Structures are given as C-alpha cells and as structure tokens.
C-alpha cells in the first residue's frame, strides 16, 4: 500500500512541525543544565529556577502545549471529545477529594514505591475502595500515579496538592485551620473546586432566567443559586458559620501569588523608580499577599494594605509568619477600609489594585475607582493587576489602546490566544461567583477612561496577569 507523507502546509503538518521543534528546544534546555528530560512520572521537587525556566524555553512549552491540544482536537472523535469536556467537572471534584483526604501529604515520604490505598485512607474518613476510584481517575490525567493495583505515588502534577504539613497531624487539625501557614496552593484549588464549581453548576440556569439574564448585580450571580449567597459572594464569605470558606478564600489569595507564573509584579512594574518612603496603597489587598512580595523586593516603599475589617485577625497572623518586622516597623500598615468609601490616604505615590476589579461589573468597578481617582494627586499612579483577555481569533492593533499591548507572533495554525485557558476559566468563575468579569484591552480602555484614568504602560505576557500603569487624566 502506498504511504502518503504529511503535507507541511496542512494544519496537521504544521502542528506536527511545531510539536517537534518546540519539544527539541525544551529537550536541549534540559540537556544544557544536565537535567534528565521532563517526565510526568517524576515525583521529585520540580526544578524552579534554571535554564529550563528561561523565556525561550517557556515560549516553547506554551507552543508545545497549544499544538498538542489542537492536534488532539483534530484527531479525537468529536462525540467522545464533547463527552470528556462535559464530564471535566469530575476532575475538579476528584481534586478536592484528594486534597481533603491529605493524599499528597501521606505519599510524600514513600516516594516512587507508593502506598496502598488502605493506608492512604487512614488520614481521612473516606472509604478506601471509593478513594482508589477517585485517585485512579486523577492518575489517568497524570495527577498521582498508580504504581501497582491500588498502590499510588506522587508525581510531578500531584506535588502542588501537598500543603507541606504532616498528614497525621493534618488529619487531626480543625478544617478551619487546614491551609493556615501553607503556600496557599491547595486552598486555591479548593476555592475553585468548591465555591466556584458550585456556582458553575448553576450558571446556565442563571444566564437563562429572565430575572437575572441581563443583570450585572452581584446579588444576581449564580452564587445565589449555587451557594445560597443571598447577599452576594462577599456576604456569603462573611456570614457566621462560614469561617472555613473565608479562611480558605484568603489563603487561596496567598496561593494566587503563583497565578502570574512569573515575577512580573516585582521586576517589570517599575517600583524601583519611586523615591524612598513613597506611599503605596494596596486596595482590596486581602491579608497583604501581594504587598509581602512588593515589600520584600522593594523595602524602600511604605506599603498600606486596605481590606474588609473581617480580615484583620487573619492579616496579623499572616504577617507574623511572613515578615515579622513589617507591621511593628511601620514599613507595612494594615487598615480596615471599605473601597466604596472615600479613600483616606490622599496623594499616595501609588494606588494598587490587584484582582479586585475582575470581581465587579463596570458600574461597581467605577464606584471603586472613583474614590481612588478623587484621592490622586497629579503625580499619583494607579497600578492595576488583572488578566488581559485576548480574542480567540486574530485582531489588528488598530487603535491606541491595542498598541500598548505587545504580543509575540502566533505560529499558524494555533489560536490567537495560544490556547491558554486560565483567563477564560477565571472569567467564567468571576461570572458565577460575582457577576464580575475579566476584560479585553478595549474594555479596560473604556472603563478606565470613564474613571478619568489614562493607561500609560502595560506589562505582562499572554495568559498571565498584566499590570496597567495609569495616570489621572482630566478628560
Ligand atoms: C480577589 S481578592 C484580591 C486580593 C488581593 N488584591 C490579591 O490580589 O491577592 C478581592 C479582595 O477584595 C476584598 N473586598 C471585597 N469587598 C470589599 C470592600 N467593600 N472593601 C474592601 N475590600 C473588599 C476582598 O476581601 C478580597 O480580599
């Protein structure tokens, strides 16, 4: 039978070429630092900062993932593809089961030989047979590995579920305290797979209901159905009896430090250009997660974190662990302050809002920005850290705002957004939890113009948080 070679011009041929070329770049980067090639089976601590993390290699990783996913969508039968997508929530459910059964912690010491599920199940209330089924589902997605029947071990993708705490102590700890003192990653995954998923389950009904379909009121979000959040998601978190949700949420924000996947916040925003003692107000700053990164890298700034008073105790605990000298020295101040009220700190060098505005639709976002604009002096900067949403199709840099966004050329036939999904998943989560939204550059431009702010500069890479540096404008 005659063989037919793959046409290099076809989508299929171009995807194969991208996969080969980018995999070679990645392999060479590992060779150059004397590391074995990456494997999903590797359960040792991930390599953090070496040549494999450099920009060129990261671009190759992004390209490889995008091309592999597109190739799968090209060859997999459409109905099974749609079924698998429709059932993806089961992975979310399984991740929460594994985290709350402390599986990654139980497996930490046993390495590649793994542990029988009967022993893993001792750290929770879960029936071992049921737990094995959940772990097998995850292992089929390369999260944990099944090394022999019913024996599981950690691998590269299960390591982020490990809080670093001792499984035995953990199993006896009050669940309200589970994520305190951790890096917050597990708390972030639980926020996604509990509160956000419950809202997602009610999204279709909420979007179709004539009473809520066109509303941007947070009280009309899917959270009203999914979480019984009659007073909106913030009301839900602050409700008596929901302390565990509130603590998990705030630790999830600590975990969200890694959302950026890079150190853009500390290295590209330009904090070093502000003179010693310049005041930076971190509005809706949570316990102060982002401020802790900024003050570590740029201790010459005077940081003021503002958030809801209900967070004060958790904030003090956070700083006592993270940077014990920060509050007593006055380098960092934590203030209870409602961001809809007049801003008490006038003429600060910087007003910083990170992942605040995506919780709110435009009219409420403007009610947050108005007091900020009112407090600005002519020299103040407003720095906003948020996702910058791309269209999935090509767009032209046909106006001033779009020209501020630098984007690398996208190889054919990949999607314009390189298939990076994080921002769209976050957008859907914001819709479900708050009736909020992630925004495109045109939407940012329009919103900030209405708030009398002008975008001077944007830094960030596709799929990561971008930082918009804005000046007050008289327009
Ligand atoms: C998505 S979190 C972002 C936290 C922090 N900026 C970060 O990036 O880690 C949004 C924050 O807005 C705060 N928030 C909500 N409503 C508020 C209000 N009315 N006044 C002040 N802060 C509020 C929440 O408590 C929460 O800490």
UniProtKB/TrEMBL annotation:
GO terms of biological process kind = methylation
- Return the protein name: Uncharacterized protein
Alphabetized, the UniProt keywords read: Methyltransferase, S-adenosyl-L-methionine, Transferase
The answer to whether keyword Methyltransferase applies is yes
Q: Name one GO molecular function term.
A: O-methyltransferase activity
Q: Where does the O-methyltransferase C-terminal domain lie?
A: 239-451
Q: Which InterPro entries match?
A: COMT-like (IPR016461), COMT_C (IPR001077), COMT_dimerisation (IPR012967), SAM-dependent_MTases_sf (IPR029063), WH-like_DNA-bd_sf (IPR036388), WH_DNA-bd_sf (IPR036390)
Q: Which Pfam families match?
A: Dimerisation (PF08100), Methyltransf_2 (PF00891)
UniProt domain O-methyltransferase dimerisation: residue ranges = 86-158
Regions of compositional bias (Polar residues) in chain numbering: 38-53
**Where is the segment annotated Disordered?**
34-53
